[in-house]
Every structure is written in C-alpha cells, then in structure tokens.
Amino acid sequence: MRQSQYFLKTSKNTPSDDVSINATLLEQGGFVYKNSAGIYSYLPLGWRVVQKIAHIIREEMDGIGGQEMFMPALHDKHYLKATGRWDVDVVFKVNSGDQKEPQFNISWTHEEIMSEIAARYVSSYRDLPFATYQIQTKFRNEARAKSGLLRGREFMMKDLYSFHRDEEDLNRYYEIVRDAYFKIFKRCDLEALYTLAAGGDFTSNYTHEFQVVCPVGEDTIFVCEKCDYAENKEISKLKKGNPCPKCGGVVYEKKSIEVGNIFRYGTKYSEPFNLQFTDEKGQRKFVQSGAYGIGLGRVMGTVVEVSHDSNGIIWPQSLAPFSVHLVSLEPTSPGVHSEAEGLYSSLQRRGIEVLYDDRDLSAGSKFTDSDLIGIPWRLLVSPKTRKAGKLEVKNRKTGKIELVPADLETVSKLIR
C-alpha cells in the first residue's frame, strides 16, 4: 500500500481527555478515531491489526471444535427477564415504536440468546457436546469509559459457548479452552496469567481471568513469584508477602489488565430456557454450559501498553498492520524512485505486506511516523544507500540498524 494514497494521517497532538498510553499512541498513529467516551472507529491501519487478532482467535477456536456463527445485537427483553438480568446497570435499553417502556436491549452478552437457540436443536445426549463462537460488537453502559480501548461502551468481543451432558465433560472442555487461550495470547506476544476471579453478573461461581501485568491495569492481582499462581484481589484472602497456596513461594501484588475470561455456568442458563436432553436411560436432564470471552480491542490496547517506547508503538510480527515499512528518501530522485518502486513490487509479489512511504517529505518526518506506527521492519532507500548498493534495515523492537545487500533474497530472509 502506498502511504501517499492510504487513509492515514499521524498527529503530534496527544488526546486531551485520555492520558492512557494506548489511547494516545493509537490515536496519534492513525489507528483509531475517538467518536465519544468509550466509542472508537477503527481506521484502516487499526482494522488490519484487529483482523490479525481475529484470525489468531479463529484458528485456535476452530482448533478446539468451535463453530463460528453470528447472533443479533438487538434482543427482546424476554431473554434477560428470564435470567433476572434485565435491570443490570450496564444494559442499554431501547424503545420499540410508540411503546412507552423499553422492549429491547442492545446486546451486552449472548448467553440467553444462545441457550434458547440450543434448546431448539438439542434433544438427545447424542447432540452433545458442541461449541459455537462469535466475533461481534457488544454494548455496555460503562459508568466510566476510560483507558482507551481497555474499557469501552462499544467493543468487539469473541465469545465461545459450550454445551455438555454433565459437569465432568464441562470441566474437561474448560481445560481445553484454557490451553487454547494461552496459545492465543502467546501468539499475540502477551504473557497472560491464569487468575482465579469472581463471576460478577455472569455466574455465582468462581471463574478464571487471563491477566497481563501492567502498571496502568485496572485490576490488582496477587501472583506467586515462583509458579505464577494468581488470584484477583476482589476475591482473594492473600496479602503481599504471603506464601503461595500452591507451591509456598512468595506472593506479590501487581496491577494488571484482564484480556480474557472463562466461566462455568452449570445449568444457570439452561433451566430458564428449558435446555434439556434425554440420556441413554431415557431420563431428561438439563444441559451444562460454559462461556469463554476475549475482547479484541482490549488485546490490541494491552499490546500497546506493554510494547512501546518513547517514540511509539512496537508491534509484534503477528499483529503488525504491515510486516515492512518501506521508506524512500528523496523519492523524486530518478534512481531512488526506480529502486524503491522495484523493491515495493518485488515484496508484494512475495506476499509480504508492505506499507510504502512514497511521500515527498523530510527524512525526519518519515522516520518519526515510522517509529510511531511501529511496523517491525523499516527498509530505507536513499541516495546514500543506493550509491553503496545496499539497503538500510531497522528492527523496530531492538532498534538495530544495519546495511544489507540490496537484493530481495537477503531482505526476505531477514524479515521472515
């Protein structure tokens, strides 16, 4: 993609109403546009990152038998009324036509919707287990929408729902999802801690969160220095310096960001929607269910919070909007123009995602934008490099700059 034609404009100005690092860098870098508190538009550069996250999630969910589907954002009130969640504070309610009282809510979760659908298709033990998932927009009336993408009123969420004949099978799948989540976060270059937590409005049982240690995190966790056992402070009886209940190591207190959570519901949502099956003995039983969530925007914001420097974002290769930032200095110079254009075409033919800065700007402006955007590799073509028969390559993560032979094979091996 030619940067001169790309819908992208960086800014030197920091957002006046949000001091979080992810909000500042993502807005300055042209990844997102803030429409109002907790509501963002993902611009082309940012949407490419979201799509990378979604791709990783889909691969791992498909790998554990998840089947993707899509459900409505507008829900009739009978769904939340059935489970007593109609009056939860975060629910956005809307009127229908001339109705004086709200008859619908805009989705903040889909347990009720999915349970009613499942009741239509499950009748026998032979129909179990199964798991479905969705990636779509959710809406929650957050009282204090802040911290950029970490806490929003409108956000993208992956929810997996699983259905089982008994608690034993639910527990089996719960562990499978846990392992898949670790793979997802590792592929996103995040070190997540499996953390015991409360269920909130979703379940009365204990649940588990995936927390990433970060100084600006809204959560506080107690984590063992030795085995990484962790508990959310909200439910924990641990204190800083206590022995770990798992291995006896020393427990530390850390700030963290929740990037995912998993829940075991039992029959909490099956009973209101009469989601039952007939077992081998002909007995009717309620289906056991679980749900497993990941916020895509939260993952994106968290990566920025933990992977940046004073100059901008440092994207991991797996999530970067482009693999290579090709920068041409003095692009109006015939020799530089020819070499940069040839390299751009060659990289594209190799299937390498490249953002080509062909703008007629100063070297300083181009380097500043490149560091801010944070693409893993910068390739520089200039009169100086052309004279030497080389290319200047910069690794955004390490900052290392080196001159390499100006041939595609060398470049391809370096950036893979």
Automatic annotation (TrEMBL):
PROSITE patterns associated with the record: AA_TRNA_LIGASE_II (PS50862)
SUPFAM superfamilies membership: Class II aaRS ABD-related, Class II aaRS and biotin synthetases
Catalytic activity: tRNA(Pro) + L-proline + ATP = L-prolyl-tRNA(Pro) + AMP + diphosphate
Signal peptide: none
An example Gene Ontology molecular-function term: ATP binding
Organism: Candidatus Doudnabacteria bacterium RIFCSPHIGHO2_01_FULL_50_11
GO cellular component: a single term: cytosol
EC assignment: 6.1.1.15
UniProt keyword Ligase, yes or no: yes
GO biological process, one term: prolyl-tRNA aminoacylation
Keywords for this protein: Aminoacyl-tRNA synthetase, ATP-binding, Ligase, Nucleotide-binding, Protein biosynthesis
InterPro entries: aa-tRNA-synt_IIb (IPR002314), aa-tRNA-synth_II (IPR006195), aa-tRNA-synth_II/BPL/LPL (IPR045864), Anticodon-bd (IPR004154), Anticodon-bd_dom_sf (IPR036621), Pro-tRNA-ligase_IIa (IPR002316), Pro-tRNA_synthetase (IPR050062), ProRS_anticodon_short (IPR044140)
Protein name: Proline--tRNA ligase
Cross-referenced CDD domains: ProRS_anticodon_short
